[in-house]
């Protein structure tokens, strides 16, 4: 199994297969617009711009499960991301990332790369690095800045 087995709804309402990202290095991030880690959007966008031509993509999945730190609707989220951070990488529709109603992708990700004390996602901006074969390589905490992941991204792009 890999991330390519999953589908998710984009901000525009389109059902997208993650197999569309086959052969790419992918960074999956659960995001929120009103979180202390929200400024990480800037670094995520910079990494995306720097490496997208080499086969790297960031996939953002907004979630409102941590202290209601996300806007109510997808249009508001998308507008916020574009106006404040110039986001051009794919934004998906708001999802649940933990609990029994978690999106199947996040159930898979947390099984493949459990957290330190618990499998579940503890906060916004938890990051999962995926190799070109769609396998989870590493999980990063919300406090890990995207620039700290750059060397791991480059290593996967070069492999």
From TrEMBL:
Keywords: Oxidoreductase, Peroxidase
Pfam families in UniProt: GSHPx (PF00255)
Full protein name: Glutathione peroxidase
Residues forming coiled coils: none
Organism placement in taxonomy: Bacteria, Bacillati, Bacillota, Bacilli, Bacillales
Superkingdom of origin organism: Bacteria
A GO molecular function held by the record: peroxidase activity
Leader peptide range in chain numbering: none
């Amino acid at each position: 199994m890999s991330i390519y087995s999953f589908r998710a709804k984009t901000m525009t309402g389109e059902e997208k297969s993650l197999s569309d990202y086959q052969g790419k290095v992918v960074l999956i991030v659960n995001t929120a617009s009103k979180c202390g880690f929200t400024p990480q959007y800037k670094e995520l966008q910079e990494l995306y711009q720097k490496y997208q031509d080499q086969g790297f993509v960031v996939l953002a999945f907004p979630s409102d499960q941590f202290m209601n730190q996300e806007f109510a609707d997808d249009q508001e989220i998308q507008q916020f991301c574009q106006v404040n951070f110039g986001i051009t990488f794919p934004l998906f529709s708001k999802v649940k990332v933990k609990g029994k109603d978690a999106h199947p992708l996040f159930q898979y990700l947390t099984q493949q790369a459990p957290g330190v004390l618990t499998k579940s996602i503890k906060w916004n901006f938890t990051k999962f690095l995926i190799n070109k074969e769609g396998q989870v390589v590493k999980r990063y905490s919300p406090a890990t800045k995207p620039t700290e992941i750059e060397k791991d991204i480059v290593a996967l792009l070069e492999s």
